[in-house]
Design a protein that fits this description.
Layout: E1 4-14, E2 22-27, E3 32-38, H1 40-51, H2 60-70, E4 75-84, E5 87-95, E6 100-106, H3 107-116, E7 121-124, H4 125-131, E8 133-134, H5 160-168, H6 172-184, H7 188-207
Parallel strand pairs: 4-7
Antiparallel strand pairs: 1-2, 1-7, 2-3, 3-8, 4-5, 5-6
């Protein structure tokens, strides 16, 4: 049976491979991290919730939370239940102890709401195994805070297609070295790209 794992929001970072996007870093109670690419407005909303900033007027996620609390609607959890083509699929799970209602939601919106309502976030072990980046225990946690991740790649690729083209010219051992370096420096987004490339090669090798 696929085990259900609780996650916490570790922080936000600039996305290195997509202009105007951010990487939302989720973590389990352990060394693995999950980077989720989200848009600017969602990143701002999550950052505001993480920092406890009070806005002059309610944001969209604040409005949803005020509505839910006014009608005593309880958010039991956010459940990230599927990963398909690099997209995370989530549900808002509402309940009163008797009845349970599941509502489909974008992962960024679901997490922005969960933070405001102090609700837990869960995913499946199979999803973490598929996309999780293992953090070296000796690595410092400085970039676990809300902030920016350092760009470590000397070639500074500008988009995913250029990165894929670059990876195609590298040997497995080189990619593994870059992945280890990315993990050490907590560049989770790059680490995931390297891991995905190695998994793709393993899959193609097994099918040949």
């Amino acid at each position: 049976m696929d085990e259900k794992i609780q996650l916490k929001v570790q922080g936000l970072a600039n996305a290195q491979v997509q202009s105007g996007a951010y990487a939302l870093i989720l973590s389990e109670d352990g060394p693995r991290r999950i980077p989720v690419i989200i848009g600017l407005s969602e990143a701002q909303s999550i950052a505001i919730a993480l920092e406890g900033v009070k806005t002059p007027r309610p944001l969209t996620h604040d409005l949803f939370v005020h509505f839910a609390k006014s009608f005593r609607i309880h958010l039991q959890e956010v459940f990230i239940h599927k990963l398909e083509d690099g997209v995370f699929y989530s549900e808002l799970v509402f309940g009163d102890g008797v009845r349970e209602v599941r509502v489909d939601a974008r992962t960024s919106d679901a997490i922005a709401i969960a933070i405001r309502m102090n609700s837990p976030i869960y995913t499946l072990e199979s999803i973490i195994q598929k996309c999780g980046i293992v953090l070296d225990e000796t690595t410092t946690s400085e970039s676990d805070k809300t902030g920016l991740m350092k760009t470590f790649d000397p070639k500074k690729p500008e988009d995913k297609e250029k990165i894929k083209e670059w990876l195609n010219m590298m040997e497995n051992t080189e990619i593994e070295e870059y992945m280890e370096k990315a993990i050490r420096e907590e560049n989770y987004e790059f680490a995931k790209l390297y891991k995905d490339e190695l998994q793709r090669r393993d899959t193609e090798g097994a099918g040949s």
